[in-house]
Design a protein that fits this description.
Shape of chain B: elongated
Radius of gyration of chain B: 17 Å
Number of domains of chain A: 2
CATH topology of the largest domain in chain B: Alpha-Beta Plaits
Number of helices of chain A: 7
CATH superfamily of the largest domain in chain B: ACT domain
Distance between the termini of chain B: 23 Å
Oligomer: heterodimer
Number of domains of chain B: 2
Shape of chain A: globular
Bound molecules: iron/sulfur cluster
CATH architecture of the largest domain in chain B: 2-Layer Sandwich
Helix content of chain B: 10-25%
Distance between the termini of chain A: 63 Å
Radius of gyration of chain A: 22 Å
Largest sheet of chain B: 4 strands, antiparallel
Strand order of the largest sheet of chain B: 2-3-1-4
Structural class of chain A: alpha+beta
């Protein structure tokens, strides 16, 4: 008999404390032991997790009005400029924006982290002044308690699968994939592999607009496909299937988040970014979905890319799987190269566990997507038109 | 028993002298080579961890000085702030001596201080500024 479940049935089981939930890591030996059908019968939800640098992140903040009021035209938070081209006291603070005084040591992501931890943030705003908003300048302090909203809204997070970065040049290079040593001195990669949300539902059967997720320690939502959403399914010459290009736009209440699951980071010589923790529950509606979550590190392949090449299309040096990467070294051109994950597997595991516990306690219910992601998106480059 | 980390600098004149062999043989020191960089025509650099009795370490180092080897102590220390660390592993692949690694079970960072030569690579590589060099 093939099992079919609905979201409602799963939520009813969650509410009555009867749902069976495991993480995307724990499911692997279960499937190996019992097979797909039996595992589908027994398990209702599989939780995933990732905790890695995600540059396309930021926060929408509403400060509330001062007296006399000001229509803020330029705004700085701890000397980091936030975009103020919205209504009078709304801004969007981008994670990668750098401090005007401290440069790369501090940026938008650090302001976000400081806000979450309850620290006082210095606000400075200037304006031309209008009849209805006469004030031209304000300097004050804000905290997450003093402001109306602080909403994390990240246009592109949770990259499905990412390259392995290496450097074949003679010079050490500083990239968003960390420091890359010359002459293939090291390699870095950045996904949680078998725990990664979009690799456990690679064709977006259960993940879509409206999916409730774990975001930075709070409950958040997927609001759209991420920018540059361009899912591809590639069959390579050895019969391996490579999924890549899926991304998510996510939203959540920053005030409820915890710096255990969202952190600021600085990549030396590159800049500031936000390390975001995301966990997505996958409802086991049928055995097809169970087949997807059975994915193991050794089945997930990615491309080794030479980041010393200064153009958009960088040369590939072959493929590796996450099992090899996670072992700590890979072999390229007969050379053993140590690897760095960048995305924390320990934290990804912690997030998948935490999400599992929240569902078990009945605090987190599954939300069926209200709309699926589009199919057949194209990846466009910026053409320089003269 | 005492343990010291030292940097030996060799010139082209003394680069071929079997200094570590002598230290082991004559001064009964326990030696761990942390880093070695040699170019016979230019000399070289050796970072060692020495263990032994205090007087033997002193005598052994005097012997090295006598044959013209530059001797410096590695007094700096690398401090890892475990609280700040997120176990991202950005530091593990740039460490020249294998001090840093991710545990195969827990995937948490392991810091094997003994082998550290305080090169500072990890300080620069850590995106969370969780590693510092102190004097
Ligand atoms: S300073 Fe850091 S990179 Fe250098 S040897 Fe010590 S642990 Fe390794
Ligand atoms: S780079 Fe920093 S945060 Fe990452 S594992 Fe190393 S010490 Fe921890």
């Amino acid at each position: 008999m093939t099992i079919q479940r609905t979201y409602e049935e799963i939520n009813t089981k969650i509410r009555s404390g009867k749902a069976v939930i495991v993480t995307a890591e724990e499911i692997i030996p279960i499937i190996e032991e019992k097979g797909i059908e039996k595992a589908t019968e027994e398990i209702d939800v599989v939780t995933t997790g990732t905790f890695g640098p995600m540059c396309s992140s930021g926060a929408i903040i509403n400060f509330g009005h001062s007296d006399p009021p000001i229509r803020m035209q330029k705004v700085w938070l701890n000397d980091v400029e936030a975009y103020a081209g919205l209504a009078a006291v709304d801004v969007y603070l981008g994670a990668t924006q750098l401090s005007e005084r401290q440069g790369m040591e501090y940026g938008g992501a650090h302001v976000i982290e400081d806000l979450i931890s309850g620290k006082k943030i210095k606000l400075k705003a200037i304006s031309r002044g209008t009849d209805c908003y006469p004030r031209r300048e304000i300097e004050s302090y804000i905290t997450k308690k003093s402001i109306n909203q602080a909403i994390l809204f990240n246009p592109r997070n949770g990259y499905q699968n990412y390259n392995v970065a290496v450097n074949t040049s003679e010079r050490k290079i500083y990239t968003y994939m960390g420091i890359l040593l010359p002459d293939l001195g090291n390699a870095s990669y950045s996904t949680s592999g078998q725990l990664s949300p979009l690799l456990n539902d690679p064709e977006f059967t259960t993940i879509g607009i409206g999916t409730r997720i774990f975001l930075g320690g709070a409950q958040g939502y997927i609001v759209w496909e991420g920018t540059q959403f361009y899912p591809q399914v590639i069959k390579d010459e050895n019969g391996n299937t490579i999924y890549k290009g899926g991304t998510l736009a996510v939203i959540g209440d920053l005030k409820e988040m915890s710096i255990d699951y969202i952190r600021a980071a600085t990549f030396s010589g590159y800049g500031v970014t936000l390390v975001v923790g995301i966990g997505i529950p996958i409802p086991i509606l049928n055995s097809e979905i169970m087949k997807n979550v059975a994915v193991k590190d050794e089945d997930i392949w990615t491309e080794i890319i030479d980041y010393s090449f200064p153009h958009l299309k960088k040369p590939s040096l072959g493929r590796v799987n996450y099992r090899q990467l996670r072992e700590g070294k890979i072999t390229i051109q007969r050379k053993d190269i140590p690897t760095s994950p960048l995305s924390s597997y320990a934290k990804a595991r912690e997030i998948a566990q935490k999400l599992k516990e929240e569902i078990l306690k009945g605090e987190f219910l599954l939300q069926e997507p209200i709309q699926k992601f589009p199919k057949g998106n194209k990846f466009k480059s910026l053409l320089e038109i003269r | 028993m005492l343990s010291k980390k030292v940097i030996f600098t060799f010139s082209p004149q003394n680069v071929e002298r079997p200094v570590t062999y002598q230290l082991i043989k004559k001064y009964d020191l326990w030696i761990n080579i942390l880093q070695a960089k040699f170019k016979p025509s230019l000399g070289g650099k050796l970072v060692l961890e020495l263990k032994g009795e205090k007087n033997q370490i002193e005598e052994g180092l005097n012997f090295a000085r006598q044959i013209g080897v530059g001797v410096e102590f590695l007094e700096q220390e690398v401090l890892w702030n475990e609280e700040k660390c997120i176990d991202c592993g950005a530091c593990v692949s740039i460490c020249p001596t294998g001090v840093l690694s991710l545990d195969k079970e827990t995937f948490k960072l392991k810091f094997d201080y003994e082998k550290c030569i305080v090169c500072g690579n990890c300080v620069e590589a850590c995106p969370l500024q969780a590693i510092k060099v102190t004097f």
